[in-house]
Amino acid sequence: MLQTESERMRQRIKAMQETIDAQSERIAILLTQQARLGLDKDIGSEKGDDDSNLTNMMQGYIAEIENLRAKLVESESINSSLRRQTTESSPIRASSRATLSPTHIPLSARSVGFGYETEYADDVRVASVLSEAKKQVEHDQEKLTEVRARRSSIKDSDDDSSLSKDVEPTNNVEAEAESKGEEKEDGKEEEGIRDSEEMGEAEEDEDDDDEDEDDDDESSSSDSDEEGEDGEMKLQEELAEIACEINIKQRLIEELETSQRRLQTMKAQYEQKLESLQNRIKETENERDKVLANLGE
Asked: Burial of 284 by CB count in 10 Å (0-12 exposed, 13-18 middle, 19+ buried)?
């Protein structure tokens, strides 16, 4: 808070110093003009009090013109400082526009020009940056959609593979049972009934083979499950990273647009004030010209 107030006072002091310099130069110019106008003792002796009144009126008009001119210089200086501060605080580092020098301020308000070519260039640059940022956000959103689609497709393929694995053991058991039945029938027809011990040994061998096959299936399924989990984790990390980038870019775009709107509002307000001051200077100078014309007559 104190730092902000100090910065504001520093800008105010700088503007007042520029105003003082402008007033000093204008006073020197006015003294030179007064010496050239020929308002000497001869004119005063001929016209007397009327000329004194006209001289006082002229001095009042000139003082009012100088007062308005000082306000104009001060307003222009504050406007330039605020514009530089707003530009430096934005993501775009634009070159600050040079302030209007008091020594180059013409006497007529009609010839006072305030160029806004640099401001227009800044507006174009900011608009291009906003457009580029929005394109990047759209690209990131498309990438996010692609990653989500890829994630859903991988998930669907994992579900299908798990279902196929559940169906294959059932089919194998049925096939083994049928083959065993056929072998038994063929054995009965060709060789007859085997001994109970031989039957027991054959069954034990078959059970061992089945257990080995089950172990192999479980190991392969566990490996595939681990690979699927790793792929799922990578996709989730990628999704989170893309979503974070989109959020950050959107916030930057919103802040930049808000700063641009604020800058445009300030610009419009100062343009109105400058136009009002110019109109007042013009009116005062017209009245002064009329008085000078009457004095010349």
From this structure: buried
Residues 192 and 255 sit within 8 Å (Cβ to Cβ): no
168: Cβ–Cβ under 8 A, 6 or more apart, which residues? none
- pLDDT per residue as tens digits for the range 229-286: 677 777 778 778 888 888 887 887 887 788 778 878 888 888 888 888 888 888 888 8
Q: Which residue in the block uniquely carries the two structure tokens 């257990």?
A: 211
C-alpha span between 248 and 254 (Å, rounded): 10
Hey, how many other C-beta atoms are within 10 angstroms of the C-beta on 174? 10
Are 274 and 100 a contacting pair, CB within 8 Å? no
CA distances from 290 to 50, 60, 66, 240, 293 (A): 16, 14, 18, 75, 5
* pTM over the 0.70 mark: no
Tokens representing residue 49 in the block:
């009090």
Is the separation of the CB atoms in 83 and 32 below 8 Å? no
- 191: helix, strand or coil: coil
Q: Are 259 and 125 in contact (CB under 8 A)?
A: no
